[in-house]
Design brief:
This protein has 152 residues and is mainly β. The protein has a single domain, classed as Nucleoside Triphosphate Pyrophosphohydrolase, CATH 3.90.79.10. 13% of the residues lie in helices and 45% in strands. It is built from 2 helices and 8 strands; from the N terminus they run ββββαβββαβ. Strands 1, 2, 3, 4, 5, 6, 7 and 8 form an 8-stranded mixed β-sheet that branches. Strand 1 and strand 2 form a beta hairpin. It is globular.
């Protein structure tokens, strides 16, 4: 069975650093990913990314632009017969006011930290999806594509 969901992701950049979540799983796996999550029923994608940024990283943001759409699939960690298919909408966001990295009001269950990461260090991190550094590089190109297809 395939479970599909839309996810709104926040790209928050300040002084050549990007704000990422650090997650750690029971098996010791550590990954970094963009803040954001599932769009709720009746909610626009813009509303979802604003809500998720606050819930996960305690950041008040405004949306500047939709910069990428990409898809990926992975087996569910909890349900062995389920493949999770995510369609992620990545929005460039602006911080509203001063900000210091902090856990939000409803962090991801595996979230252990919120960190500013130098954009040049992305290729050396365990990112999820794995092609996240390539995805982030595409949105600064003058003739960028918004829909990037299946990235995994």
């Amino acid at each position: 069975m395939i479970s599909t969901r839309n996810s709104a992701k926040a790209i928050i950049i300040k002084e050549q650093k990007i704000l990422l979540l650090k997650k750690q799983y029971e098996d010791g796996l550590v990954i970094y990913t963009l803040p954001g999550g599932t769009q709720e029923t009746g909610e626009s994608l813009e509303q979802a990314v604003i809500r998720e940024a606050y819930e996960e990283v305690a950041a008040h943001v405004s949306v500047i632009d939709l910069v990428n759409i990409y898809e990926h699939r992975r087996p569910s960690r909890k349900e062995t017969n389920v493949i999770k298919h995510k369609v992620e909408f990545a929005f460039l966001c602006r911080l509203e006011g001063e900000y210091k990295p902090a856990m939000g009001t409803h962090p991801d269950p595996h979230q252990v930290a919120v960190e500013w990461i130098d954009m040049h260090a992305l290729a050396d991190l365990p990112l999820y999806p794995a092609k996240l550094s390539e995805i982030l590089a595409t949105f600064v190109q003058p003739s960028r594509k918004i829909y990037l297809g299946n990235v995994i």
